[in-house]
Amino acid sequence: xxxxxxxxxxxxxxxxxxxxxxxxxxxxxxxxxxxxxxxxxxxxxxxxxxxxxxxxxxxxxxxxxxxxxxxxxxxxxxxxxxxxxxxxxxxxxxxxxxxxxxxxxxxxxxxxxxxxxxxxxxxxxxxxxxxxxxxxxxxxxxxxxxxxxxxxxxxxxxxxxxxxxxxxxxxxxxxxxxxxxxxxxxxxxxxxxxxxxxxxxxxxxxxxxxxxxxxxxxxxxxxxxxxxxxxxxxxxxxxxxxxxxxxxxxxxxxxxxxxxxxxxxxxxxxxxxxxxxxxxxxxxxxxxxxxxxxxxxxxxxxxxxxxxxxxxxxxxxxxxxx
Length: 322
What we know:
This protein is mainly β. About 5% of the residues lie in helices and about 45% in strands. The chain folds into two domains: about 1-175, no CATH class; about 180-320, no CATH class. It has helices at about 65-70, 290; strands spanning about 1-5, 30, 45-50, 80, 85, 90, 95, 100-105, 110-115, 115-120, 120-135, 135-150, 165-175, 180-190, 195-205, 225, 230-240, 245-260, 260-270, 275-285, 300-305, 310-315. The strands form three sheets. Strands 1, 3, 4, 5, 6, 8, 9, 10, 11, 12 and 13 form an eleven-stranded antiparallel sheet that branches. Strands 14, 15, 16, 17, 18, 19, 20, 21 and 22 form a nine-stranded antiparallel sheet that branches. It is elongated, with a radius of gyration of 24 Å.
């Protein structure tokens, strides 16, 4: 298992990146010398497990396109760096400007970006690293991208230890803006009968998280930063003008690709023992700057006059205005 720094402002990993076939004559990124780096700050860390993926090369070399295929990503998900060979303690080539690389004992790799790398008119961070040694390669995949990691190795060989480094490839991914999620929703009380009716707006709930104002007379609404590539779960909190009542359900969010479109799905669930359902709902997804000071009735995504026991928003990320 490995530790890595996730770049939480994670990014819109859109199509229109460079070709991911690892033909060195096909793409030439702007490159700089590989130099020693410091170990990334261990705060805000998560764990990722390297994997060995199938590929066309019998010697174990893998391409960024094969990495994309292995993780069910669009073929042009990555902008591919060059495969840089390593022997005699020296890299035979250079890495993109701003990528700092250090190798210890010929097998342990640390890397760090000084910041997102500008290529053309876009910014990129590292989306995957291919570490080749012996006759196989370890692939380190970073959902949402990362600015650094440490202790990467090639797969274990017959000695029972990590093989020495043969070559290293960085697969870059476009940096996208931070996303914050905030919600206010009214709740309705069902009245059973031959025809179900509802007491509309009998209560209301908001997203918990950061920036909650406990002052009586406020919405008591908070916001949450979204982390790409994993299911995010936030508290749905019942509130009243005098005070926060407490958690009443969940707000779950995840991003995925469908027909090469990058979607964000936000699912609202309410505890069934409360006997309430969702009434008018107002959802914000975008930058913190776009959220700050915005009243809930101006949130971009709404469901009005549609009473349901579970609310689902499906959002095309390319359409979000930041």
